[in-house]
Every structure is written in structure tokens, then in C-alpha cells.
Amino acid sequence: MSLSQLSFDLASLQAAYRSGTSVREVIAEALARCRAGNHHAFIHVLSDAEVAPHVARLDGVDPAGLPLFGVPFAIKDNIDLAGVPTTAACPEFAYTPTGSAFLIEQLMAAGAVPVGKANLDQFATGLNGTRSPYGACQNAFDPDFISGGSSSGSAVSVAKGCVTFSLGTDTAGSGRVPASFNNLVGLKPTLGLLSGTGLVPACRSLDTVSIFALTAADVQAVLGAAAAFDAADAYSRQAQSFGVDFSQGPFRFGVPRVQDLEFFGNDAAAKLFATSVQRLKTLGGTPVEVDLTPFLEAARLLYDGPWVAERYVAIQDFIDAQPEAVFPPVRTIIEGGRSVTGAQAFSASYRLKALKRVCDAVWADIDCLLTPTAGTIYRIAEMQADPIQLNSNLGRYTNFMNLLDYSAVAVPSGFLANGPAQCLPWGVTLAAPAFKDIPLLRLADRFHRAETFTLGATPTPLAGTPACSGLPSGEVGAAGSGTVRVAVCGAHLSGLPLNHQLTSRGARLIGSPHSAPEYQLHALAGGPVQRPGMVRVASGGSAIALEVWEVPAAHFGSFVAGIPAPLGIGKVKLADGTEVPGFICEGQGIAGATDITRFGGWRAWLAAGAPR
Asked: What is the model's pLDDT at position 473?
């Protein structure tokens, strides 16, 4: 395969490096692709001289030693790269930083190579990609249509195969809407998981740096390399364990009520959303209807409420001095922040707090929420003719997630027809509470692979690229899952009297295996809740029916503390030879107990007529 045919997904690049392809060859090819017709995706493509030091850092380095070795990436041009102007899509605002943003340093330390600064809606204000003096960014599939924004060039550069991944930002959906319109995976990570040092802010309290890539697995690899606590960023947060991994077993997903769904006349999008619901069901999901009303009310606070004042504060000195330098729709929005009062700010803050309490209650019934990413897509000409209302339409399903501190992943769902000659991608979003990024990416990966897709706007098939790992090791910020698996054999089984001690702690059933054939099961004397005792024996044992539950580590101690003697938690060997923590019984505890091993499990004994 020639370099011009090489797919830039992470697995293909790593294979190329293993076969002897050099970093200089790959980066030269990336720069050539970036400099070719790019749909107004780039504001600045690095020169050979500018990229040379980044390539030289990898001389003599073992490709296997760095997770992102020789990987070309693009940077939204409101994030600093040392020695290259940061414009925020406003030439008069431009400055040249002497240092790179904290997370750019993290990525380069992992082996990634920056090749360009990507176009954006000016000052990251917009969801459509047309608000830039560097040109309206065109959709990767049809140049008549919008790319989505504000991270417009970031998305198109990945979709067109110029780079492996790109960084955007997301305040109101800017890391998700462009992903939907360009057949990409786009992550809006948990606020503070990626550092904001070196970022021109839009709304500092809500801004997140987003990641675009061709697959969820690639997004997860980039997130793992970039996420690190930054003491210089007041909004940076230490990574926390994500708890139960709902992507690995049966899960419940929220679906907006029919009356809450709006596709702005796009019947093809409505059909694709219905298909997406069915696809999640085939993956083991159970849909749960969710009233989206409080979420939509929270969304309206972003542009109709006082948070617009944050946009004004971010560039106050510049816009006051040079208002004519700001794109008209952007200026209209940002200057609206001048008149916000403290009373309005506090009033809206109180309302948001109340709405968050209501919205957060849904997570007691669901693991994740499924929504359209955007109800529809528009032509560039349509957007420019009605820039405020149509932009607002694009944010219907995205604006609330930043305000409510949720993590979200946009993932391709299919293609919709918008006339006889067009076939444009369209996607959905999976959302969950903060720090659920990894389970969301894993579920998004399964969803993505459940249909036949190509990568972005390239001819490369998704099939064959590695999936997201189902293992809990090596997670973001080394936080891991934060759960403990425990095998239960008696009254804690599903539907039995003590099962609530698991479910009330947020535990999840992940399997119903048998033990290795090395155990005896006894019905212990006493009560009031009758319990079994499982004892490992050298001979005369049998396989016992079990359930394995995943318990949040924060609640495991209190669970164990409530276990009465002679029972306790030890290692239980499963039929496949693995060992997990589980209920065991002290040998002396079976005195006076009834041997029920022949039944093969507690439920079978109960079904045979034993007292409960």
C-alpha cells in the first residue's frame, strides 16, 4: 500500500510503523493532505520548518514505547501551540504563544505530532462552522452543507483523512455537532478532565476540550494520553473512578418522550433516531422514557440566560476596543453579555441548581441517555440567511449537557437523504454523569460497530479496526473503574430477600456463572433470613450456581461490614478458573447445617420446597 492510500486511524498507523514506515514519511503525507483542498478546514498548516522539531523528538524512539507515536493531529485555533499564532478565527485578535497548552504538551509527550491549526466559528461562538473570516467550513461529504461548529475544521480535518485525531472545544455542543455531520466519534469529556490552560475561553466555567477521531477506540487512546491534572487550571479535576461499567452487560438507556423530540421537518433524521433506539436494544439495552422538559429548560439558560456574560468577559478588552473586527452574529451574541446583572446571574444560577436536581434524578433509573446530536442539518446558504435561529436549532440536544456537568459522546448512526444527490451522515449522542467517559466510549464503540460504516469521509471500512477495550485497566488518569466484583450464592441473589443490599449500593449484575466443581453448599441454621454457606473442599465438591455483581468500591466496605459470621468474603474460584471475591463460609460454621450440594445452587433448593 502506498502512503497516499494509508488510513490514518491509529491501528493502521501503528501497523505502518511496525512495518518500517518512517515518521517523516507519515508526517510529510499528512502535511500534503492538509495543504490540499481542505474545505476551509485549516487556518494554518505547519510549514516543514515548523513541524521539523516535533518530528525530531521522535528520532531513535521505539514506536512501541509511546501510545501516540508519530500520530498527526490538528488543533482548534483557540488552543495554543508554541510558535504558531492563535487566532480564535479573528486575525486582529491573533497572538503567538511562547509555550503550548498543557494538554498539547501531554499529547506530544505521548508521541503525537501537531500539523495544523483548524478553522472554527469565531471565538468558538456557534454550532454551524460558517462564522469565520477564513471561510465557511464545508461539510466533508457535501460542500453545500455546513460542517457543524464551532470546532468545524477540527472535525473536517479528521473526516477527510488529513489527521488521526483533532482537538476541538465544547461549550454548547461544538465537539458533538460537527462529529454528527462528518461521520465521526466526538467526545465532550467531563469538565476539567482535560486541562484548559492555554485555551482562549468561551464560557470558562463550561468549556471542555473535545476530541474527534474516526473510532471510539482512537478517542479513548487520545483521552488516556491527554488527561492529567493541571494545578495551573482552576477548573482541572482529578480523574475519578467511573464505577459500574454499563457498557459490558445489560443496561438501561433513557429515550426522550415523543413530544420532546424535534427534527425540524427532517423525517429521515427521525427514522434514523428510531433505528438507533432499536440498535441499542439489540446490544442489550432497555429503553426508558425520559421527560426532557427540565433538560430543555436548562439548555435555554445557556444563550437566553446570563452565561453569555462569560463570553463577553473572555474577550472584553478586545471587543470593546475593536467591535468591528468581530463577525456580526458573533458580535451580537457576545455584546449581549454586557447588560447582564448580578441579580440575573444569581437568579439563573439558583434555577440551574434546581433543574440539575430534577435532571440528575433520572440516573437512578437509567445508565445513559440517548438523544439526537442535532435534529437536522442545513445548507451553508440557509445558515447564513438565518444565522441565529438555525444555530439555536442545532443546539437543542447539546446545550444542557455542559451546564449539567455531564459527559457525552457523539457517534455515527447512519446516513440520511437530503435531496436526490445528497447522502449525509447523521449521529446520535450518548450521555451520562461526569466521569462516565470510558463506559460511554465503550458503548459508543459497540453501537458504531453494529452497522457497516466507513471511517469519516474516507473509503476505509470500520470493520477490522480494534474495538475499545473491555478491561478496567489502564484507564484515564489511572482512576480505573472503582468497582469490586463479588460472587453471591444465596439470599443476595436477584429477587431474594437480601438482594437490596447490593442494588441500594448501585451494584450491577454482570453474570450468572457456576463455581468450579470444588464446593459444597449448606443451608445454615438460624435466621430470620435463611442463608447458605459455601465451603471449598478437596474432594466431593460440585459446581454451584452463582451470580457475580459489580459493586462500587466506595460502598464495598459497608456491604462487607454487614455480613454476619460464619460467613465472610474470600476468593471464589469460577468454572473458567478465574477467581473473584465472594461469599465463603468458615468450616466450623456448617455444624448443624443441612448439606444441599446435590441441588447445585440455592435457588434450586428453594424451588424444591425448602423454606425461604
From this structure: 37
Active site residue 413: no
User: For residue 477, what pLDDT band results from cuts at 50, 70 and 90?
Assistant: low
Instruction: Identify whether residues 525 and 538 lie together within a single domain.
Output: yes
Q: What is the pLDDT of residues 591-603, one digit of tens each?
A: 888 999 999 999 9
What DSSP letter does each residue of 420-448 carry, written as one string?
Answer: TT-EEEEEEEEEEETT-HHHHHHHHHHHH
Pick the catalytic residue from 154, 174, 195, 210: 174
Same-domain status, 487 and 434: no
The pLDDT of residue 548: 92
Number of domains in the chain: 2
- Residue 104 three-state SS: helix
Give the CA angle between residues 78, 392, 138 to the nearest 5°.
55
Comparing CA positions, the residue from 405, 435, 453 lying closest to residue 182 is: 453
Domain assignment present for residue 612? The answer is no
Parent domain of 45 = 3-478
Number of helices (H) and strands (E) in the chain: give both, helices first: 20, 19
- Cell numbers standing for residue 262: 424535534
**pLDDT tens for each residue of 155-187:** 999 999 999 999 999 999 999 999 999 999 999
Q: Which three-class secondary structure string do you get for 327-340?
A: CHHHHHHHHHHHHC
Confidence of residue 483 (pLDDT cuts 50, 70, 90): confident
Binned at pLDDT 50, 70 and 90, residue 13 comes out as very high
| 449 lies in the same domain as 522 | no
Give the tens place of pLDDT for each residue, 75-97.
Answer: 999 999 999 999 999 999 999 99
pTM for this model (two decimals): 0.88
Q: Residues 12, 132, 147, 150: which is the catalytic one?
A: 150
Nearest to 455 by CA among 465, 442, 446: 465
Q: How many residues does the chain have?
A: 612
What burial letters (b/e) apply to 453-471, b meaning 16+ CB within 10 Å?
A: bbbbbbebebeebeebbee
Is position 515 annotated as part of the catalytic site? no
CATH of the domain at 208: 3.90.1300.10
Tell me if residue 76 is catalytic. yes
First to last CA, the chain: 67
> Is the same domain home to 423 and 459?
yes
Question: Residue 122 in contact with residue 330, Cβ under 8 Å?
Answer: yes
The CATH number linked to 548 is 3.10.490.10
